[in-house]
Amino acid sequence: MILVNGVETDSVQATDRGLAYGDGVFRTLRIQAGKVRCWARQFSKLEADCAVLHIPCPPRSVLSQAVISAADAEPDCIAKLIVTRGNSMRGYAPPLSPTVTWVMLTAPVPPTLQRRRKDGVKLRLCETRLGLQPRLAGVKHLNRLENVLARKEWTCQETAEGLMLDAEGYLIAGTMSNLFLVRGNRLYTPDLSRCGVAGVQRARVLDCAQALGITVNIGQLRLPDLLAAEEVFLTNSVIELWPVQEFEGKHWPSGSLAVTIGEWLQEHDD
Amino acid sequence: MILVNGVETDSVQATDRGLAYGDGVFRTLRIQAGKVRCWARQFSKLEADCAVLHIPCPPRSVLSQAVISAADAEPDCIAKLIVTRGNSMRGYAPPLSPTVTWVMLTAPVPPTLQRRRKDGVKLRLCETRLGLQPRLAGVKHLNRLENVLARKEWTCQETAEGLMLDAEGYLIAGTMSNLFLVRGNRLYTPDLSRCGVAGVQRARVLDCAQALGITVNIGQLRLPDLLAAEEVFLTNSVIELWPVQEFEGKHWPSGSLAVTIGEWLQEHDD
């Protein structure tokens, strides 16, 4: 199912600024048993990301209606919601009062999700680094060439995800997921104030940690921190939580904190 | 006129990776008296930029045909040529054998061009900085949010262009143009190995300088270098060459080297 501004169609205007400049933001939603997971939080993040780019976010009621139609039509799927600054004349200057475009696309749930949640995944190190851009850091915008180039570095299906470092060698995230390390019953996750996407699922893990009384350190982490971790896991709204089983030759047995947090994420919906 | 893969239409697939991730490149062409300016060089740059992203470039014969139709229909216009990695399933992983999308859009020539070439322009300093990303530097790709945010910093029509610095404060370029400084009969232009777009017109200025025996220094430049310059000018394929008349309170009289180079660019077509 594809909706563009509420209309079922498979196309967008060729003059859309989303295509021209990546001038927009997006969200990836999990629809399960006919319901959108964590919709309130997803919408808030969409709204916040739009605000960073000064793009007017479509009203919540409009987008809620769209995700409800998607969930009615496909009760178990992935939905992607894109909001762009809409059409404009040629040139970078954004229109003063843009008429935004929103696109909702559904896709099947990857068949490997469950197994990977249970068995853990193989992670590799990407050569493509994330450039530092504090102005856009944390935002899930449409300028994602770095992620594409990083994901292009491997084709082997056994490797589930690639780890990206920033230009200075700090750990940032997977190509499509956020990263957590466990050591001494503490959680460690990279600071994302200079690059990376601060995902909804990452925020949920931070809330979970608070609820369970687990201390979290958000800061600058390097490869030795990862290699010294007792547990490593990845999160996003589709995978929820994947424990890392292997990274560049180093192996981890399944860890208890990943299991606890994974269960918490599944049981809660906010 | 809008052509998508050779077909007259005003839309592209909503699943195009150009929209999803900015996964593509583009060129802006000047069509004048029914001919495309510097087409050989424009195509070579498109091909080179595609190669950096591992996107197969459409054949020159196909794109030549498209720009010829545009020039026949609108003998005096701006044409924009976009090439994306085409459609794919959800996710960053690019298809192994992508079927690329190309889009050609025409637009009117801005009415201010000639006057600004003659009288010079007002340049302002942008707050938005360019992040350093050597992997994508020089390439005119579709991830242009930094340029959009920089261009959004002013609406006053009197200001023609904004100057962008990189994260470390080095001069890089205008939001849509390359930058040149003149001092002691030498040309200075920023090194673009860490960010920025190495435009076709910039390459032509370098060729012009060689033809005229003018020494060019490509390197790291800062604001004091700009303020100490005897002439400052901006280039791109639409504006060709705009002398900078004013930058943040500092004024320049019209300079002779900008005139000489501007005439050379107009007289030559390679």
Q: In words, what does this structure look like?
A:
2 copies of one chain form a homodimer. With 270 residues, the first copy, chain A, is of the alpha+beta class. Chain A folds into 2 domains: 106 residues, D-amino Acid Aminotransferase, Chain A, domain 1 (2-Layer Sandwich), CATH 3.30.470; 155 residues, D-amino Acid Aminotransferase, Chain A, domain 2 (Alpha-Beta Barrel). Helix content of chain A is 29%, strand content 30%. Chain A contains 8 helices and 16 strands. In chain A, the strands form 2 sheets. In chain A, strands 8, 9, 10, 11, 12, 13, 14, 15 and 16 form a 9-stranded mixed β-sheet that branches. In chain A, strands 2-1-7-6-4-5 form a 6-stranded antiparallel β-sheet. Chain A is globular, with a radius of gyration of 19 Å. Chains A and B meet through strand 3, helix 1, strand 6, strand 7 and helix 5 of A and strand 3, helix 1, strand 6, strand 7 and helix 5 of B.
Provide the residue-averaged pLDDT of chain A. 97
Radius of gyration of chain A: 19 Å
Order of helices and strands of chain A: EEEHEEHHEEHEHEEEEHEHEEEH
What about the largest sheet of chain A? 9 strands, mixed
Q: What's the total number of strands of chain A? A: 16
Largest interface: A-B, 60 and 60 residues
- Return the domain count of chain A: 2
Coarse structural class of chain A: alpha+beta
Give me the CATH fold name of the largest domain in chain A. Answer: D-amino Acid Aminotransferase, Chain A, domain 2
Percent of residues in helices of chain A: 25-40%
